[in-house]
């Protein structure tokens, strides 16, 4: 049974006139009559009574009409859903991210994405950096915001989206909190340091130690934590100072002051990672991602 035959049947049933139905369908009347005859042969029933008084539905035709309308509506809906999915206007976006992008980058992308594609379901998952990369490669998430660089993989695509300098989070009452000017790495030499642990974020941990070593500073690591906001919390408790991305300053804390770190080489770059052959939902999100900015 062809859908076009069902459409023709419904229009004839609504018009009860082959001429008017043919005009609505933009076909000639003989072609429409052939379609109806073909449908009647396929179903082995008579759908219309035709006499000098006009056209009327038979009992079989009346029984078919509601089902035909339902089938056509379902077919139209299926086409609409397929087309929407092909354009990326519906579906699901599973997105992984490292915690620091919540400070400003991710909110600035999710708001316009939701406004433009409200029918896309968002599934968000905060992850550590390596976990996020593996999540993309393993299909747990479709894309992820990660700290760069990451090890190259054959199927992994990566694009930088934001580069920023570092700041030092210090207890509000400490001498380092006085003033608005930048601090130098040397200023950290006699400070207890709250550091991101190597077991969860080895690249970030090593980069902070390498930064200190480049300035002749051997850091006095007092505490190791697994996330930046936890480091800031310990700073608020007066347990040390912490190196953080400058965007962390957006999360104000009454017991923490942020001072920019004076070192143009000390930068953190965030990128977006996804696999080759991304679906349209991913492509739409990537179109909103910015190019990396400056200091």
Count the DSSP helices. 9
User: What is the string of helix and strand elements?
Assistant: HHHEEHEHEHEEEHEHEEEH
Helical content (DSSP H or I, runs of 4+) = 40-55%
Largest sheet: 9 strands, mixed
> What structural category characterises the helix and strand content?
alpha/beta
Described by the principal axes of the CA atoms, the overall outline is: rod-shaped
Q: Poorly predicted ranges (pLDDT <50, ≥5 residues)? A: none
Compute the gyration radius: what is it?
32 Å
Number of strands: 11
Mean of residue pLDDT values? 90
User: Strand percentage, roughly?
Assistant: 25-35%
**How far apart are the first and last residues' alpha carbons, in Å?**
65 Å
Could you characterize the architecture of this molecule?
The chain is α/β, with parallel strands linked by helices and 295 residues long. Helices cover 40% and strands 25% of the residues. It is built from nine helices and eleven strands. It has helices at residues 3-15, 18-25, 29-43, 59-87, 105-116, 129-138, 202-214, 228-236, 280-288; strands at residues 48-51, 54-57, 91-97, 120-126, 143-148, 156-171, 192-196, 220-225, 241-245, 256-260, 267-275. The strands form two sheets. Strands 3, 4, 5, 6, 7, 8, 9, 10 and 11 form a nine-stranded mixed β-sheet that branches. The chain has a two-stranded antiparallel sheet with strand order 1-2. Helix 1 crosses helix 2 and helix 1 packs across helix 3. The radius of gyration is 32 Å and the shape is rod-shaped. This is LysR family transcriptional regulator. Residues 1-58 form the HTH lysR-type domain. Keywords: DNA-binding, Transcription, Transcription regulation.
